[in-house]
C-alpha cells in the first residue's frame, strides 16, 4: 500500500528522475575530499542569511528616523531579536570567510580551467554580490559607522572623472545622505542583490551538474581541450560515485560544524551594534568599517596621496578584470598546485598582504588619538626632577595636542614617531625647526606657539632620552651637550 | 492503371491540400510571432523608460541642490573663534530623522568675514574635529590635518577643507547648504 502511494507520487512529481539528475549525479570518487566542502558551506550560510534576514525584516524599519530605534528594539525588547541579529551578523562573517576558502581551493586545484570557465565566472560575480551584501548590510545597521561609511563611499565615487557627481547622487539617492539613502540600500540588500545571488547560484549549480565536479588534480596530468571531456567521462564511468548518498558525508559534517559555529559565536559574542545613533552632529566619532573592509581602510590611509585617485579608480577594475580573465589566461595545462608555483606564491602574497593590512586596520596607527591630549597622563618619569621650564614644556606638549599623534611611554597617538628618545635623534635646533615648520607629515606650529612656548617645549623634549644616553648635539659645538642644555636653559630663564 | 490513376490523383490532391493550409499556417504563425514579439518590445520599452528614468534620475540635471539656510545670529559666533554649527538640510523629507541635521565649522575671522567649512574631510568624508589649542582640524579616519584657515596641513587629503558660501542678512548668518561635498563636486 505504502509502496503504491510512493509510486503514485513519484509518477506525478518525477522525484526519482529529479534525484537522478541532481543529488544523485555521479562525481569522481577522489572528489570526496575535505577540500571540497567549502562550496556547500557557503550555500548553507546564504540560506541561513535568507532565513534570519527575513525574520529581521518582520521588525526592522528601513527609515532613517526609525531604523536605529528598531534595531535597539530588536536587541532589547523583541523576544530572541538579539540572537537573530547576532546569527545574521556571524552568518555574514562565516559566509565571506568560507567563500574566500572556496575561491582559494578552486584556484589552487585548477578547477577554473577548461571546461569550467563559466562556473568560475559566475562564482566571481557571486563573490562581488556577497561583498555587496556585506557593505549594504553594514549600512542597514544604521548607526554612526553606517552614516560616515556612506560618506566614505560617496567620497570614493566622487573621485570618478566626469560622472562622479552623478554616481554620488545615484548612490545616495540625492545630493546628501538622508532618508532615501537608507531606502536605497535596503532595496539593494533585501531585493536586488539577493535576487541576483539566487539566480547566479542556480546557474553555478547547474554548471556543476552539466560540467561535473573537478577531479582531484594529479601532478603531471595536463588538461587538454581535445581529450578532457572523454577522459572525465571515463573517470566518472570507472570510479564515479553518486553525490547523494555517497560523496555528501563530508559536506554534511562541515555544514553541521558551520551551523554550530555560527550559533556558538552568536551566543557568545552577541549582536554587533548598533553603535552611536546616526546623528551627523555627533561628530566625536571614529568611523571604522567592518572586519572584511579593514584592509581597504588601511590601504586608503597608507597610499601616497598622489597615487590615491588613480589607484582607487583602476585597481578594482584591474583586480576584478584579472579574476574574470583567469580561465582564459590559464585555461588548460597543469591543475595540481604542486606544479603551479606562481599560483601558490600569488595566494601566499595576497593572503599576507590582505592579512597585514587588516591587522593594521584593527589598531589604525595612522589615526590621531583624538582624546590622548586630555586623557593620557604624562609619565611620572618624564616630569620627576625637571626644571620649571621643562615642566612648562610638558604642559605645552599636552595642551597643544602633540600627544594625539606622538606617544610617550606607549600611550598616545602613533601617527608620528614616539618621542621617548627624541633627544638622542634631534638637536635643540632641529627640534625648534621641526616644531615651527613641520614637515614629514607634521603640521607647522609656527603660528600657534609663542616663542616662549617653543622654548619650553624644546627644553622638555631635550630631556626625553634614556638614562645612559646623552642628547644629540651639533658636531660644530663640541662641548658636552648636557652642559649646553643647562646653559641654554638658564639663559632662557 | 484504372486503379492507379485515381490513386495518383488523390495523392496529388492530398499534397496540394496539405501544402496549402500548411504554408498558410506557417506564414500566419510567423506573422503572429513577429507581431507578438514586436508588440512586447514596444510595450517593454514604454514600460522601461519610466522605470530606468526613475532609477537613474540622478543623471538628469535638476536645478541647484543647495539653498540658503540660517545658521544663527552673528552674536553666537565670537570673533577669532571657530565653532560647530548645525543647519537643517533644505530638501528634507519627513522620515529623514536626525540625518537632516548637518554640522559645519564656522570661523569668524573679523567683523562680518567668515569661513564656513564642511564637516567632511576632503580625503574620504569623515568628520573633522577642531582643536582650539593647537588651531588644527584633525580627521579621525586616516589622519588628515588642516590649519585654522582650512588649508591642508598634513596627511592624505588632496586639498584644503571645503568652504560653504555664506552671507549675512539682518544679523543672521546664512549658509548655502544641502550637498555632500566631494572632490568632483565641491561646494
Task: Label this structure with key terms.
heterodimer, A: 493 residues, mainly alpha, Cytochrome Bc1 Complex, Chain C, Cytochrome Bc1 Complex, Chain D, domain 2, 2 domains, two-stranded antiparallel ribbon, 21 helices, disordered C terminus, B: 187 residues, alpha+beta, Rieske Iron-sulfur Protein, four-stranded antiparallel β-sheet, 28% helix
Layout of helices and strands:
The complex is a heterodimer of chains A (493) and B (187).
Chain A: H1 2-13, H2 15-21, E1 26-28, H3 38-57, H4 67-76, H5 81-108, H6 117-140, H7 144-157, H8 164-172, H9 179-211, H10 228-239, E2 240-242, H11 243-247, H12 249-269, H13 294-302, H14 305-329, H15 341-363, H16 372-375, H17 388-399, H18 422-425, H19 428-437, H20 451-462, H21 481-492
Antiparallel strand pairs in A: 1-2
Chain B: H1 4-55, E1 67-73, E2 82-88, E3 101-110, E4 113-118, E5 129-131, E6 136-138, E7 145-147, E8 152-154, E9 163-164, E10 166-169, E11 172-177
Antiparallel strand pairs in B: 1-11, 2-3, 3-4, 4-9, 5-6, 6-7, 7-8, 10-11
Strand order of the largest sheet of chain B: 2-3-4-9
What is the count of helical runs of chain B? 1
User: What order do the helices and strands of chain B follow?
Assistant: HEEEEEEEEEEE
Please give the oligomerization state of what you see.
Answer: heterodimer
Strand order of the largest sheet of chain A: 1-2
Mean pLDDT of chain A: 91
Structure commentary:
The complex is a heterodimer of chains A (493) and B (187). Chain A is mainly α. Chain A folds into 2 domains: 2-363, Up-down Bundle (Cytochrome Bc1 Complex, Chain C), CATH 1.20.810; 372-492, Cytochrome c-like domain (Cytochrome Bc1 Complex, Chain D, domain 2, Orthogonal Bundle), CATH 1.10.760. Chain A has 21 helices and 2 strands. Chain A has helices at 2-13, 15-21, 38-57, 67-76, 81-108, 117-140, 144-157, 164-172, 179-211, 228-239, 243-247, 249-269, 294-302, 305-329, 341-363, 372-375, 388-399, 422-425, 428-437, 451-462, 481-492, and strands at residues 26-28, 240-242. Chain A has a two-stranded antiparallel sheet with strand order 1-2. The longest helix of chain A has 33 residues, at 179-211. Residues 487-493 of chain A have low confidence and may be disordered. By secondary structure, chain B is of the alpha+beta class. Chain B has 2 domains: 4-58; 67-177, Rieske [2Fe-2S] iron-sulphur domain (Rieske Iron-sulfur Protein, 3-layer Sandwich). Chain B is built from 1 helix and 11 strands. Chain B has one helix at 4-55; strands at residues 67-73, 82-88, 101-110, 113-118, 129-131, 136-138, 145-147, 152-154, 163-164, 166-169, 172-177. In chain B, the strands form 3 sheets. In chain B, strands 2-3-4-9 form a 4-stranded antiparallel sheet, with no helix packed on it. In chain B, a hairpin with a 6-residue loop joins strand 6 (136-138) and strand 7. Chain B is elongated. At the A-B interface, helix 7, helix 8, helix 9, helix 13 and helix 14 of A face strand 3 of B.
